[in-house]
């Protein structure tokens, strides 16, 4: 994320515009944008695939309450802040309601993929704390994407009835994808007898068709790719192999092009001096809303202060998912370039701070695989077979 910003007008374009034009000539930028958006679709498919909806249905009350707290409080605070920002930072012609709802939704995001990587790198992913945090983040992600579908429908609709129609059509598409899972599973298993390459082609074709469908509905194409990932049959080895191959190519090779495109739209130097105060407020509301919402809900659910503080810190990780959501808002014209820049700064700061704060809070900590000292029962936490750390 940071490299994409540094390659843009915020640093390289400001210090050495000639070098920037040499590295990113204007003639190449349209192709960079197309490849970056294709990578975005595949990445959203992978996010949906990594959301275990069966596990979400079985989440414990504590997980649901923490996820709700980490969504609702930043959503409410973000919406209140957006009301104040609307005169100064809303794009011309954008109605107040979609602007306010989008800003609130953007501040309530948690990056499940980045959080999983941070916990895995520290050997915490299979601990009670890690599985609990990941279950909360997965639930948070599912709720946030539902909110985003509603907000994008409202933003692109000409009237409330158009928004309801877009929501109904998106719900119908989701139901159709879910109902088709047995047929899709048999088709993929039959294709796997030929080659895994054919399975990959079929999956990419399905996500592109769904992306076209949601685009025609009036919702962002990325939503269609996400829905395919969320509804694709689970437990099919060839699907897992194809997903691993897509991730190995798209995430390290093509997805950076999306961040380069994002960086070209992030111009810190162009942000007026008077709007840096808004940037500080956005950062403060984002951090405190997430931390207080998640930590407070965890405390009410029976977690002790250490667990609550850790959960509040972990749920503040916004990462790639936040950048994706902001990019959708910018493409739809719901947020201005200046607010996009402000929120990208917030996303980078909160993501960069997560790992160091986690290391500090877990230093000399008791066994994080044990139940909370305040008495959260083991049955209140997600079961993790083989959690031995």
SSE string, helix = H, strand = E? HHHHHHHHHHHHHHHHHH
Unreliable spans: 370-389
Radius of gyration: 21 Å
Main beta-sheet annotation = none
Q: Structural class given helices, strands, pairing?
A: mainly alpha
In short:
With 389 residues, the protein is mainly α.
Description:
This protein is mostly helical and 389 residues long. The chain has one domain (2-16, 29-380): Na+/H+ antiporter like fold. It has helices at residues 2-7, 12-15, 17-23, 29-50, 53-57, 61-89, 96-107, 112-121, 128-156, 160-179, 181-192, 196-217, 221-231, 237-264, 276-300, 305-314, 319-332, 337-362. The chain is globular. The model is unreliable at 370-389 (pLDDT under 50).
Features:
disordered C terminus, single chain, mainly alpha
Please give the structural blueprint:
Layout: H1 2-7, H2 12-15, H3 17-23, H4 29-50, H5 53-57, H6 61-89, H7 96-107, H8 112-121, H9 128-156, H10 160-179, H11 181-192, H12 196-217, H13 221-231, H14 237-264, H15 276-300, H16 305-314, H17 319-332, H18 337-362
Helix pairs in contact: 4-13, 4-14, 6-7, 6-9, 6-15, 7-9, 8-9, 9-10, 10-12, 10-13, 11-12, 12-13, 12-14, 15-16, 15-18, 16-18, 17-18
Domain Cation/H+ exchanger transmembrane: 1-358
Region (Disordered): 369-389
Membrane topology: Multi-pass membrane protein
């Amino acid at each position: 994320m940071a490299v994409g910003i540094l390659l843009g007008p915020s640093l390289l374009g400001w210090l050495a515009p000639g070098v920037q034009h040499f590295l990113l000539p204007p003639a190449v930028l349209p192709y960079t944008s197309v490849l970056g958006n294709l990578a975005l679709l595949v990445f959203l498919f992978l996010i949906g695939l990594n959301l275990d909806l069966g596990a979400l249905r079985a989440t414990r009350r504590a997980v649901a309450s923490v996820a709700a707290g980490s969504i609702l409080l930043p959503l409410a605070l973000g919406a209140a802040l957006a009301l104040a920002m609307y005169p100064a930072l809303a794009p011309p012609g954008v109605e107040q309601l979609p602007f306010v709802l989008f800003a609130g939704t953007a501040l309530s995001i948690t990056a499940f993929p980045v959080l999983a990587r941070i916990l895995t790198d520290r050997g915490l992913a299979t601990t009670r704390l890690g599985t609990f945090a990941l279950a909360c983040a997965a639930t948070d992600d599912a709720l946030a994407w539902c909110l985003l579908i509603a907000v994008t429908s409202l933003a692109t609709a000409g009237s409330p009835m158009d928004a309801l129609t877009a929501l109904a059509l998106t719900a119908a598409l989701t139901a159709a994808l879910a109902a088709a899972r047995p047929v899709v599973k048999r088709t993929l298993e039959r294709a796997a007898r030929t080659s895994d390459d054919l399975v990959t082609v079929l999956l990419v074709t399905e996500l592109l068709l769904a992306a076209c469908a949601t685009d025609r509905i009036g919702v962002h194409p990325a939503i269609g790719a996400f829905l395919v990932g969320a509804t694709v049959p689970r437990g099919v080895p060839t699907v897992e192999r194809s997903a691993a191959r897509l991730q190995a190519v798209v995430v390290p090779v093509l997805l950076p092009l999306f961040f380069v495109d994002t960086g070209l739209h992030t111009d810190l130097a162009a942000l007026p001096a008077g709007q840096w105060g808004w940037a500080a407020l956005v950062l403060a509301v984002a951090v405190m809303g997430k931390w207080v919402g998640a930590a407070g809900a965890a405390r009410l659910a029976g977690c002790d202060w250490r667990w609550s503080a850790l959960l509040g810190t972990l749920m503040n990780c916004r990462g790639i998912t936040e950048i994706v959501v902001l990019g959708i808002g910018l493409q739809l014209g719901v947020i201005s370039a200046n607010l996009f820049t402000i929120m990208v700064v917030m996303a980078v700061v909160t993501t960069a701070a997560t790992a160091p704060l986690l290391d500090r809070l877990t230093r000399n900590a008791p066994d994080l695989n044990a139940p909370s000292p305040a008495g959260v029962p083991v049955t209140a936490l997600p079961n993790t077979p083989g959690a031995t750390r």
